[in-house]
# Entry
Amino acid sequence: MNQPVSQSNDAQSAREGAVHGVHGHFQLKYQPAVPVPKGKLAVWLFLSTEIMFFTALIGTYIVLRFGAPQGSWPTPQQVGVIEWLGALNTFVLICSSVTIVFAMEFAKQGLASKAKWFLFGTFALGGMFLGIKAYEYNSKFEHGVYPQGPRSLLYDRADLDYLAGLKASVDAQILALEKGRTATASETGKIAAGEQSPARDSHSDNALERLTLIRSGLIQWTQKKVGQSGNPMMVELALKSLAYQIATMDKDERIETYLANEMVEVKSELAELQAEQQRVDQRVAGLQGEIEQRTSSKTDSSAEDADASDQAGLEAKIKSAADAAAESSRLNDLIVPLQARVDAMDEFTLVEDGINEHFHLRLPMVIPSGNTWANTYFLLTGFHAIHVFGGLVAFMILMTLRLDAACAGLLENVGLYWHFVDIVWIFLFPLLYLF
Amino acid sequence: MTDEYQNEPLLHAKTNAGVFIVVFLMLFAFTTLSFWIANSHLMDNRIVGWAAMLAVSVAKALLVVLFFMHLWWERSWKYLLTIPALIMGALLVLLLVPDVGFRTETYSKERRSHAPIAESNVMDDGIPSSQ
# Structure
């Protein structure tokens, strides 16, 4: 065994020999390849994969956002993103980065209890971040902003699909309210006391009335317009103005002019029809009066022979009265939708930000690229929040230890991870809240 | 673990409390700056405003990496673990630019009419549209 160890055959045995010290002349000593502790190297390796992951994720969002023409991506205001909450969360994370840096510094100096307090401060700030995030998520959900699926109320365009979705939603809500009302009615009937039910009833009555008006004056009106008009421009305007009334994103002069012009037309048409109906109704009333007079006079003088021409005249009068009544009801059929339109416009035209926001309704709304936005928003903030949560778990485990100089390395490793989470948020804040 | 840390240059350096406080204040100032940019005239051309905000974010990230994550004081292994990762991530993003970044430029008329925006609005804002 005096010959030199060939690398190809005996490398394994040579290494073992060195470790076990069997061969005296192979005194190998472990030299770290990188002059850092193993744990820190491992954390940095992990972080370099995280750098790739988040660079790709955030970079993809940037490419999507920069490539979206003006107006085809929701502004923060449209999707209920509150700038100052994002700024507050940025501040919270920066503070938590500072506290964990100081926790490590104190641990290095052996000031264990000070280090623990600063670590606890970091934990509390991280928790605060998640709390604010949860509040923000909740307000998104309340506005029907979901990543996808049946709960999302977002539509990309004001088209027929949107009209159908809106109609289905309103129908379902009206049905639910009516069901609820019959349920409470039977309940109060049973209890028969019902002191607090009137308030609740009037509230749901209001909601029901409003939804019914939305259905007749906005949705059915638009359906009729879309069905009647062969002009695609007019169809587009009708659908857009409906979406505009449900959720007003930006003030749009073109749509407001369209609605105002339409209202003038509808009102004059309505006035004409009403005048005509009044005339017809008067004629019906006059004819009925005459018929009544004739028949009563006939019964009075039943002994006298009513001549045939008189009889024929009466029949003709009855017929024309019936025709006039039919004409009146035909006019009424024309008047009802116009009246509903006028009522709806009176009720909803001056509403700021649209019906949805003003009356706290949950109706489908049109936000260009809203679904893409919601997907990316929840993906980015969700992955970040999961990382924050992971950091909090690490802090909890660290807080069970004595944070003296022996622990400084561990604290630094967790701190490295936490700072990285902070950096991710540093990019997410302007991208999601300010762009 | 204590043994390992005897080799740490960081442990022998004096405490950097002053540096950390300065970095913290700068981070705070930079956050305010990006908030200011978002509401300033830089947003008149939104690409300029966005680029400015991203530049501020890069500056903030550098401050955190260099000082809070101690890379300023580390040896050259730091480049091995950060630069290639950044290049890989950036390449992946750059590969998206032709297809995703300029997606509206190659929209057909048909596709454009189903895009979440009216054709009339696509024209402004310096983003060219096909035709």
